[in-house]
Amino acid sequence: MVSLQLTLLAALLLGGHTAQAVQEPIFFHLIQISYFVNQSWTQHQGSGWLGDIQTHGWDNETGTIIFLRAWSKGNFSDEELIDIELLLRVYFIGLTREAQDYASQLHFKYPFEVQVVIGCELHSSGIAKGYLQAAYQGSDFLNFQNMSWVPSSKSDSRAQSVCDLLNQYEAIKETVHRLSTNTCFRFALGLLDAGKVDLQKQVKPEAWLSSSASPAPGRLLLVCHVSGFYPKPVWVMWMRGEKEQLGTQRSDVLPHADGTWYLRVTLDVATREVAGLYCRVKHSSLGGQDLVLYWGHQLSMYLILLAVILPLILLIVIALWFKKRCSYQDIP
Ligand SMILES: *[C@@H]1O[C@H](CO)[C@@H](O)[C@H](O)[C@H]1NC(C)=O
Ligand SMILES: *[C@@H]1O[C@H](CO)[C@@H](O)[C@H](O)[C@H]1NC(C)=O
Ligand SMILES: *[C@@H]1O[C@H](CO)[C@@H](O)[C@H](O)[C@H]1NC(C)=O
Ligand SMILES: *[C@@H]1O[C@H](CO)[C@@H](O)[C@H](O)[C@H]1NC(C)=O
């Protein structure tokens, strides 16, 4: 069933010019970051993500879901969403209490931070799977696999203790399983459909070049900035002729506040070898018309200026010289 719907959605979303509009696999997940500052002060941050787009937030004070997009409810009824909200509220209150009760017993020292991601992954091949992973102080701690809690390979004996504790509760296991599979699959598919206009949008990148001194003398760090594009997949390369420059370094793709993306791509090169280098940008919004920015063009702009200004100066000098000569000749 999921497979059939995915095939239909894939045809809908991945068809035509928007081949890269939705990244594969599609995933939806909730991210929880909890700060346990001391015995009495806890704060939970929650967010929902469809791929790289944030769709939901969580208000810790009121214990309610924040719907960030017009389509953030997907096709779920208000009743089902209220049930989920209630479940999350009970979970956060329970977690706060359990953490306070067990912190000293399990040697969790305040302040500490817990991160949890729960969600599902859908492939257009029809493969779909749910997952839950938790981290303590930024390191993998435990995950939920095959209906049971398992400590991460790098975690310590505390993770085993927490898993032993959690594994006693069948109802929690069933709830986590249901949320990360059936509920997540249905919700993600409904969201994809409801948000397709936003998800299929195409925003063209702007690109510009700059340079900075490389640490080594006689070398230059060329920087190609690509900014304001959507969706996220982008190909940027420093090239000479048809040859990709192997020294090209890519930064992380960073988000702008408006949901578009930014990236910088650098090349460390000997100053005398910069001529003929250019930065090429491929993006789905460009419809096959790659952006091409020659480093040399900036140079030739100076040359053009020089070519205009030099003769001008020369002319002025000659004119002045003639004027002077004429005025000498005027003297009898
Ligand atoms: C716990 O942390 C909060 C926030 O930093 C602080 O205001 C509060 O006084 C602390 N309480 C105790 C008992 O240390
Ligand atoms: C956050 O939520 C938890 C659980 O509902 C609650 O105990 C805590 O006081 C809240 N923290 C803040 C800062 O509102
Ligand atoms: C999951 O559990 C079932 C039955 O307990 C077992 O047959 C299967 O091999 C397990 N799968 C994984 C990936 O551990
Ligand atoms: C929402 O859409 C999905 C995918 O089309 C479907 O499986 C589901 O039954 C729909 N409704 C609800 C309430 O989940």
Automatic annotation (TrEMBL):
Q: Which GO terms describe its molecular function?
A: endogenous lipid antigen binding; exogenous lipid antigen binding; lipopeptide binding
Its principal location?
Answer: membrane
Where is the protein found, in the record's own terms? Answer: Cell membrane; Endosome membrane
**Pfam families recorded for this chain?**
C1-set, MHC_I_3
Do you know which InterPro entries this protein is assigned to?
Ig-like_dom, Ig-like_dom_sf, Ig-like_fold, Ig_C1-set, MHC_class-I_related, MHC_I-like_Ag-recog, MHC_I-like_Ag-recog_sf, MHC_I/II-like_Ag-recog
How does the UniProt record describe the way this protein sits in the membrane?
Single-pass type I membrane protein
Which domain of life does the UniProt lineage start with? Eukaryota
Transmembrane residue ranges: 299-322
Q: Which residues form the Ig-like domain?
A: 205-285
Q: Which UniProt keywords apply?
A: Endosome, Glycoprotein, Immunity, Immunoglobulin domain, Membrane, Signal, Transmembrane, Transmembrane helix
Q: Which GO terms describe its biological process?
A: antigen processing and presentation, endogenous lipid antigen via MHC class Ib; antigen processing and presentation, exogenous lipid antigen via MHC class Ib; immune response; positive regulation of T cell mediated cytotoxicity
Q: Which SUPFAM superfamilies match?
A: Immunoglobulin, MHC antigen-recognition domain
Q: Which CDD domains match?
A: IgC1_CD1
Mention any one GO cellular component term assigned to this protein in its UniProt record: extracellular space
Secretion signal, residue range per the UniProt entry:
1-21
Question: What PANTHER family would the database entry show?
Answer: MHC CLASS I-RELATED (PTHR16675), T-CELL SURFACE GLYCOPROTEIN CD1C (PTHR16675:SF155)
What is the designated name of this protein? CD1c molecule
Q: Which organism is it from?
A: Suricata suricatta (Meerkat)
The organism's taxonomic lineage, starting at the top: Eukaryota, Metazoa, Chordata, Craniata, Vertebrata
